[in-house]
Amino acid sequence: MAPLAAWFVGWLCAFPTLHPPPETLSITSPVDGRVYSTSSSRTTTLPLLYHTTPRAERICLHLSRAPPAPLPSQPAEEFRTYAQGCFAIGQPVRLENLIAGNYSLHASARGAAGDLLCTAAPVGFGVEEGTAEFVPSYEWRPVAAGQSVVAGLELQLDLAASRRRARIPPTWRLQVYLGREHGGFFRMDVQRDTPVGAIERAAAAQAARGRAQPREVCAALWAGLDRLAPSDTVEGAMLFQKQGELKIEVRSCERLPGAESPPAGGA
Questions:
Q1: pTM score, two decimals?
Q2: 141 pairs with which residues across the strands?
Q3: How large is the greatest C-alpha to C-alpha distance in the chain, in angstroms?
Q4: Taking the CB of residue 98, how many other CB atoms lie within 10 A of it?
Q5: What's the pLDDT tens digit per position in 212-250?
Q6: Residue 224 and residue 130: Cα distance in Å, rounded?
Q7: Per residue in 183-216, pLDDT tens?
Q8: In the chain, beta strands by DSSP E
Q9: Is 258 left (phi over 0), alpha (psi -120 to 50) or beta?
């Protein structure tokens, strides 16, 4: 029996030790490295969007600001505390009344007892008072001198006249993080007339495949704090312009219709 017992112990030890998934926190809005423009009030407001561990009960933020300067070369000692606070997971949070300058956002996830679970990579972004932003469209539009365009647009340059024009590609890839339990990133090639409902159905199908015990689930697409109408289109909902604000909520179908708050956290 001794050889058999030794073999059994060795067989058990051959299996890898199971560890709980790592605690994580990642910020998806504001976007690291992006420069935002102020509105007519000379300020801007940005939604906070993030993914975090299911054990998190609160997210704590520390936002510091420095005078306007080129990113990312500004010395750390020039930053001063601008705002800070802790919020319940799922509570809508906005970074409001941001004036021109450079910002550094630090975030941490806390447990029920206030214990630190994890921290996010710092997010650095800028706010500037610039020229009117280039408003992308699915039709070609001229880009004025001094205007910057967002990544992903199609560009044409007239070298003879030194003029540029840009448009949203007729087909582009939408990418939204669903969470580890729902297969990670959801990706779908969309066009201007693709219904929001078609995106939600495709996301729900991916989420259902990723479950250990497949069952019917439904999905809802949010842009910041706004639930998008399934009957709307990619163009009508301005999904290309709102890519940094998009989040897909996955729930059981009987719970989803009553959802009134955006899925601020969870991954």
A1: 0.54
A2: 166
A3: 89
A4: 22
A5: 555 688 999 999 889 999 999 999 999 999 998 999 999
A6: 24
A7: 889 999 999 999 999 999 999 999 988 665 556 8
A8: 25-29, 35-37, 44-47, 49-52, 58-66, 80-88, 94-98, 101-110, 116-119, 123-128, 141-143, 154-158, 163-167, 171-179, 184-191, 217-223, 226-227, 246-252
A9: alpha
